[in-house]
Amino acid sequence: MSAAQLLLERRAEYSVIGKPVPKVDGDLKVTGAARYVDDVKLPNMLYAKVLRSPYPHARIKRIDVSGALRVPGVVAVVTAHDFKLGRLGILQDHPPLKGDKVRSVRDEVAAVAAVDEETAERALEEITVEYEELPAVFDPIEAMKDGAPLIHEELGTNVAPVNFTFHSHPPEEIERVFERARAVVEGEFRTQYMNASPLGTMGVVAHYDSAGYLTVYTNTQAPFLYRRDLARVLGMDPMRIRVVQTEIGGSFGRGMDLYPPDVIACLLSIKARAPVRLVYTRQEELMYAPPRQPVIVRMRTAADRDGRLLAREARVFLDAGPYVSWGPYDGRVMMVTTTSMYNVPYVSYDAKVIYTNNPYTGTQRGAGNPQITFAIEQQMDELAEELGMDPVEFRLLNANRPNTVTPQGIRITSCAMAEAIRRAAELIGWRGRGSLGPNRGIGFACYFHVGGGARIYRSDGCGAVIVADDFGQIALITGSTDIGTGSDTALAQIVAEVLGVPVSWVRVVNDVDVSLRPWDVGTHASRATFVAGNAALMAAREARRVLVKGAAEVLGVSEDDVELRDGYAFSRSDPSRRIEIPKLIRRIHFRERGNVVLATAFYDPPNEMQDERWYGNISATYTFGCQAVQVRVDPETMQVFVERVVSVHDIGRVLNPLTAEGQVHGGVAMGLGLSLYEELVLERGAVVNSTLMDYLLPTALEVPPDVQAVFVGEDDPEGPFGAKGLGETGTVPTAAAVANAIYDAIGVRPRRTPITPEYLWRLKREKGK
Amino acid sequence: MSAAQLLLERRAEYSVIGKPVPKVDGDLKVTGAARYVDDVKLPNMLYAKVLRSPYPHARIKRIDVSGALRVPGVVAVVTAHDFKLGRLGILQDHPPLKGDKVRSVRDEVAAVAAVDEETAERALEEITVEYEELPAVFDPIEAMKDGAPLIHEELGTNVAPVNFTFHSHPPEEIERVFERARAVVEGEFRTQYMNASPLGTMGVVAHYDSAGYLTVYTNTQAPFLYRRDLARVLGMDPMRIRVVQTEIGGSFGRGMDLYPPDVIACLLSIKARAPVRLVYTRQEELMYAPPRQPVIVRMRTAADRDGRLLAREARVFLDAGPYVSWGPYDGRVMMVTTTSMYNVPYVSYDAKVIYTNNPYTGTQRGAGNPQITFAIEQQMDELAEELGMDPVEFRLLNANRPNTVTPQGIRITSCAMAEAIRRAAELIGWRGRGSLGPNRGIGFACYFHVGGGARIYRSDGCGAVIVADDFGQIALITGSTDIGTGSDTALAQIVAEVLGVPVSWVRVVNDVDVSLRPWDVGTHASRATFVAGNAALMAAREARRVLVKGAAEVLGVSEDDVELRDGYAFSRSDPSRRIEIPKLIRRIHFRERGNVVLATAFYDPPNEMQDERWYGNISATYTFGCQAVQVRVDPETMQVFVERVVSVHDIGRVLNPLTAEGQVHGGVAMGLGLSLYEELVLERGAVVNSTLMDYLLPTALEVPPDVQAVFVGEDDPEGPFGAKGLGETGTVPTAAAVANAIYDAIGVRPRRTPITPEYLWRLKREKGK
């Protein structure tokens, strides 16, 4: 019996919630009817191409675009000198077009809009740029040293002005705990650059119309912030800017920020007075899309003789590239996991964000959590080994428990972490270290993640508007964005459950101009189903009141006696008295002094903005889980074969076992990519493996057929129908679990990703010495 | 001082209401940024052309489309035999494609979708249709006679099964009143076929996508009913149909129904699996768009010796053409004016709807009211003359008064009819009959029209949703449609006034899929500002509560003390305590447990569905007015020159004197077209003047510069800010006033429109005999 079936049996009280409902946008997607940004074709649309720096660091002496303007078919050319622009990024350190200096090989120097892509490409060759090359730095540790080339001279340092430091106690007190501990492990862990590799590449179609309205079709995952930032950078009245989110072919965090191509397409459209399309090719996506934040983590963890964690210290180095986008802010997520994943009383965390001439980074599924978990969960195994404890028992001993507060002020409410660990061990068939014999091993890793929003902005809320039509269609206009996770399906289920209608009657709307949608901060931190779901739930309950009142009148019963289910309103006491809901809607509407079903709601989760010490309960609830991975390592080639994955999750109530399983499967695949395969290889800051021939995305051959998604835990008190977030968590523990399994198999401990055969071979050789 | 200025002085208490605010969509329209149906360009869009019958009445023996299918570039061809379709129109007597029989020369027999219009045209020539011609009938009176060719054989008669009969008393009782009256006048009046001639011709782009969703871009003025009807006719689930209303380049009633081209474009798209465009050329518009309902009115009116109206009887004959669309339903409007325009105790009304082989008709601005007013208001002059009374005094004596109920159950609340008559007489400088000397004359005509909706459907309501963004933009998602009248501007003003923001911050949204908009029955009966305005008002008041509550907190004052005005929330008692509203919105939102400004409302006016006797108060309020026209008639050519028009209206509070004046000016121009110029000339049911060279639309040369729009009356108790409807009324009395002026000038009474020189010459010659 599958996990999905088990759930169904256990939770049969609902008609739609907990059922394996196929994705509501599935038909649109499989038939090709969904409109991705690539499908936006506007009359007279022009095509844009961008000229980038050939040097990782150089001063721009002169830009001459006159040659490009002479190319037949070219309509507009832009450089930094054409517009007075604001800067992009969290620290506003990123000019959308570079006029004085380039700081990486992908820096945008000029762009062309032409009648087709070929002409635009050709025109780029006619632009002359004179550079004065500058010394460059590509290693964040090097970049912190005195005398390193300065990326932003005016700062006088390459360390970005970002403070990611948290101490539970004064540093010397923590140090004393380490000194007196029974066991301390210490090590450095490194993770790589990864491309998010969604099917839909980054893209935008910008249309500045003759009335001065700028409409931008984009696959951003944070359209409200996108509009705000675009207005600021362009210096335009936000009321003149209309952002329409297209269908999103995956995003995985890539779409969190406003990037130079977004602005460039707008500038070209303003100049050309025509729609301008700028959509990345796959090669451009690999080279220029913001990759996952690579990290260097130096970590120490200490435990007492009984195996209780005493202290953990992490020193993290985050290579921002030349500009701070969302990648370095993974440092905040890593902080919370460091302080709060296990019950550890003394914690010290510091992350430095360092400018280099590498690519700037974005956030990606898990947002730093896979990276820090790679360190934490290996040290858990190391400590257990040092203490002579079973790694499962050691984790159980230190696992989070419900209704506790961690040193960083994280308030844990629902928590089935221990159950998740036990289930993972049971289902993978754990019989202790080395029990599978040589070259085969099992590794465990837990995860801890936000599951009830994440207040990284002053509002973590989401709005919902319900408009029912006379045919029974319930339109839910949501601020929320489905980036491919199935969150729209969850929202449809929530509304359908409350209103007692089939899911297919609910239409989730988020493809209209964002200023017609009620606010949402964007889809990140696994928050869509939790936050937007609660908003949808509240709005649906308001809509339900109209239906119940109307049904009571029509059926001649009291409102308390009315039930809505399966498309009918009926009397609980006499179910033969019933009316189809579409008919009920018409009965309520089509009479003198009638009414229609309209409702609104706004839900802002009860979480906290962290204070200047980074103390505070950032999420309304948290998710927990444990992944067990079984690997075989070929002793000749050192190739790692993942044979089984058991992925156990406490995400509260599972709204949809089908999409939940899908999320876990996808998350594990992505985690395996991080663990073993994917890496953007840089040479002097330039991506050299810019095709999917060279960039090793896991395929069906790399993902084992036996990935088991298991759900444990109880309803969360704050979640919609008890649900917590799930989007990212499948990815979080995988690399750590794979590394632990490799150690179990061959006795070497991989401390960097991807864990390539070559790397393992070197480790083994070093061990042999 | 203009009427607009006068109003401003009188009603200074509001910041936006009553101000001459330019149209909110003006910038979009004058810059060409507005997207009309003609601007909808979808990728791979095909172009459709329709094959129509060459015969007014014929049986179809055979249709062979194989030749068309062989034309390169043709993608799809449809005939009635390809789909099982429902029928169009109020009586569902109209097949979208004709398979067995054609009943007029515009009947659609087949249609082609091809890569361009030329190919589609060419392919039509390759379709072979074999007809068996049938005898035809083109005169409604002839069509009622025994032995006339039957348009719908199955009915056994050409009189459509529509009952438009109202008697205030038993017929014999009414007849006795006529017998005993001091004065009775009797006559027959006829009006012509008129084309609505909006700048935007009829059109649709239909897109049946690969997932089975049908999206229709249309310039309908009743998108909710359009979707319902389209689903019924196509036999499709309405949830699969998405109707998007484009910007509307005028409609004037033409867009009230679903027509064959709408369905045909959908069928072609379903067959071709590609978007299909079917937009009329100007010539097609003149030939095939539904014209204004022509009428034959036989009327008697009786008065007592004191000049009090005693009785009125109207016998109306409405030529429906072969199918009943909205045109014949003008019979209901004519009924209400007949019974309720003046205080006349005995009324009898009967309208027959008659099938012929002429074009089927639509409704048009005023919806029968100009036609019936042409009869009523001439008889008012005739009666006054017969009684030796001044026509102004006679009208004043019989004018409606506030708080009365007419024989048909029309409840008159606010009513400044008498004031309107007096002002018109005063402003035109009336000094009695014939006072302007030979060949120059003044004529008066009053009007009476619905001004508070018109319950012709079970719901006369409109919904509103307000979504405010963080920049202070207030999106009003309305069910209502601005067909060019400026109703969106009025809605924006209402919301702006309530929320204390500039009009430019309000964005009226009605260009999204209709199933995301809250219901509205459609823009007709001058109802948009009244009904949608009340809905907007209610929603704005709900939104205001959020702002006031937030402002009280932020400013530290009580809610009672908060005022919203000019973009600020401030303390009434200490206006220095204030905050900009966008900032206030952000303060309310960007905090823990924040809130956003969302609101909904639905307003269904307190009017009544008329009963089977046609008794009932169809509108929540009514408008009144009087138009005075001064003409000069050239005694040689009998050409009529309109020298001045004074158009006085009681429309309650004038929300926007600029757009109100514009509506009156446009209405008068259209009324002059009806009076003197426009006529679709038919030969055996075919329009023969199918260009604007032959069809005499009044130009700037025909409309006198001196058209004075004057507004009288008090706030209506039910209207938004006291407003009543205005859209149609400028047109209603013009023809009658022109006719009365001509009589005053040259002593002949025109009883048909258009009052051409030739017609006047004939009248004068007859009189001379």
Q: How confident is the prediction overall: mean pLDDT of chain A?
A: 96
Overall geometric form of chain A:
globular
Q: Name the structural class of chain A.
A: alpha+beta
Helix content of chain A: 25-40%
* Structure annotation, total helices of chain A: 19
**For the report, how would you describe the main beta sheet of chain A?**
7 strands, mixed
Radius of gyration of chain A using CA atoms only = 27 Å
Quaternary arrangement of the chains shown? Answer: homodimer
| Strand order in the sheet with the most strands of chain A | 3-5-1-12-9-10-11
Our estimate of the beta-strand percent of chain A is: 15-25%
Q: Greatest contact pair?
A: A-B, 63 and 63 residues
Question: Whole-Å distance between the termini of chain A?
Answer: 49 Å
